[in-house]
Specification:
GO terms for molecular function: glutaminase activity; imidazoleglycerol-phosphate synthase activity; lyase activity. Heterodimer of HisH and HisF. This is Imidazole glycerol phosphate synthase subunit HisH. The protein is an alpha/beta fold and about 210 residues long. It has six helices and 13 strands. It has one domain: 3-Layer(aba) Sandwich (Rossmann fold), CATH 3.40.50.880. The chain has a seven-stranded mixed β-sheet, with helices on both faces. A hairpin with a 2-residue loop joins strand 5 and strand 6. The radius of gyration is 16 Å and the shape is globular.
Length: about 210
């Protein structure tokens, strides 16, 4: 059975994520233990709340080293919501800048929209060759709850090798809803709160492990 660790660093819908990943057929452990996180077939990095608090929690358990080591070895990592945001270089909230893990270039900023937070169901625009969204219709909706997002994808498209697949959504403006970049995948929405659509997406991820 595929083994997945949900990284416990004090922030995230840990039990919801655990139930969702177990539902689609994986053996799941919620832990901050580095050995277990490094040895698992897949690592899920959840996150809710403020960027600064999440990155502080991640650093407190050495999570940035765990993520970096896994990715250096081609070992899959899935970030969810703020767990996606902290993969970028920096976040800016209320004028305060915090450093992320820097796995991707880019800035997490407040969305320019009439209604904040962006909360509820929304569609996404996934690339035709996306593995994460394979088998899902274009009008499939996922559950979002956030006020901040990455508004510009900045990874150099001229880099050699496999190019990132970036999925977009719209709330007031376009923002990055998901990304697939080698072993590092992430979603701004919550697959664990997105019903059958989220379960299908998690199954797609598990198939790559």
């Amino acid at each position: 059975m595929t083994r997945v660790v949900i990284l416990d660093y004090g922030s995230g819908n840990l039990r919801s994520a655990e139930r969702a990943v177990r539902r689609v057929g994986a053996e799941v452990e919620v832990t901050a233990d580095p050995h277990a996180a490094l040895e698992a077939d897949g690592l899920v990095v959840p996150g809710v709340g403020a960027f600064a608090a999440c990155i502080e929690g991640l650093l407190s358990v050495g999570g940035e080293k765990i993520i970096g080591t896994r990715l250096a070895g081609g070992r899959p990592v899935l970030g969810i919501c703020v767990g996606m945001q902290i993969l970028f270089e920096r976040g800016v909230e209320h004028g305060v800048e915090s450093k992320g893990t820097g796995e991707w270039p880019g800035t997490v900023e407040r969305l320019h929209a009439d209604v904040i937070p962006h909360m509820g169901w929304n569609t996404v625009r996934a690339p035709g060759d996306s593995q994460l969204f394979a088998g899902l219709d274009a009008d499939t909706r996922f559950y979002f709850v956030h006020s901040y997002a990455v508004r510009r994808w900045e990874l150099d498209s001229d880099l050699p090798g496999q190019q990132p697949k970036v999925t977009w959504a719209h709330h007031g403006e376009d923002f990055v809803a998901a990304a697939e970049n080698g072993p590092l995948w992430a979603t701004q929405f919550h697959p664990e709160k997105s019903g059958d659509a989220g379960a299908h997406l998690l199954e797609n991820w598990l198939r790559t492990l």
